[in-house]
Amino acid sequence: MRTRSQVWAQKAYEKVREAARGEGRGEYRDMALKLPVLVRQAGLSQALAFVDSRGKDAHRALGNHLAQVLGYRDLRELAEAARQAELLQYLRLTREVLAVAEWFKRFAQALIEE
Amino acid sequence: MSHAALLFLHALSPLHAGTGQGIGAIDLPIAREKATGIPYLPGSSLKGVLRDRASAWDKDTLFAVFGPDTESASEHAGAVQVGDAKLLLLPVRSLYGVFALVTSPYLLERFRREAGMAGLQVPGVPQVPDAEHALLAPGSRVLGDGGKAYLEDLDLKAREETGARAWEDWLAERTEAPVQGRLAVVHDDLMGFLLETATEVVARIRLDDETKTVAKGALWYEESLPAESLLYALVRADRSFRKGKELPPESVWGLFRGVLEEGGGVLQLGGKATVGRGLCRIVVGR
Q1: H-assigned helices in chain B
Q2: Which of the residues B193, B199, B201, B223 would you substitute to probe the A interface, choosing the one with the greatest number of A C-beta atoms within 10 Å?
Q3: What is the complex's ipTM, to 2 decimals?
């Protein structure tokens, strides 16, 4: 058995490594750095909607990657789940997104050059 | 017999009791208890500030009450024991009443434990049926339309209960925190969430002198307990252990209390003092 954190870290690492080779890696990194604190300050649904609204492919790619690490198809599906969730589920989803977003932030700092 | 008392700390500005560098969402997070996640201000932080205030005392008295300097710490212990200041009420944005002072059965229960050690009688701890409910005092200003309390973006079913009123009255009588009409008792699960997400997070920057724009890499996020937070700490005064400076617990307490009340009971606690953080009013619980 592995810890939840290990599983998420491994998946996030693979996603970020892939993004680090692609187009728009700078934008991907910017959003990865910004997202955790955005969830903290604005709330989960608002933060996910913000990522979606940015319109840049790299930003949305980060959102999709994050959603996939948590087992959703893409950002839209995760955002839908956030909107539909009952209170306690919403609280848990917030925590999970925060934890995964923190891994993306850390790996983006490590793997994508400024 | 030692003398025990409970101190209330009311944050007048955001309180940053830091832990140094964080690796999560926030660069400079606040101290939290490991198992419960409840924010606290370490007793050492509070004691250090009070000791500093007493530094004008003669050495014998200072060392008897607060303990000797670090290099001679092995000589004897100080006569006062300052516990960690733990969070009791967290201010949370509210559509009605501007903000609510939020707590939960668990927070009240652990407060009750320590208040009991200081000889204080506290009201009974009310129970919240589920995470969707909030208990308010009858006539609370937090109560909004549709019988709900709107805290942050959480719409909770409000239930007016005299149990909440009893706590409001009890706390209003002993502290100057604006608790009257603002107390909201929520479920422990919801409290846990608010403790994680309703603290204050601000971005800070450093400017480049030449360009007056943000210096490279000089942006960081800092967490604080919001202004109006209420914390409490258990303090004990023992007899003096310093040879030649015998003081009974009552005298030690008298000296300690004098330091507390100096300057109208207002202290600067925690970090980031030069940018206005950590102004707290301290009162001794009666």
Answers
A1: 43-53, 59-66, 105-117, 162-174, 188-197, 249-261
A2: B193
A3: 0.84
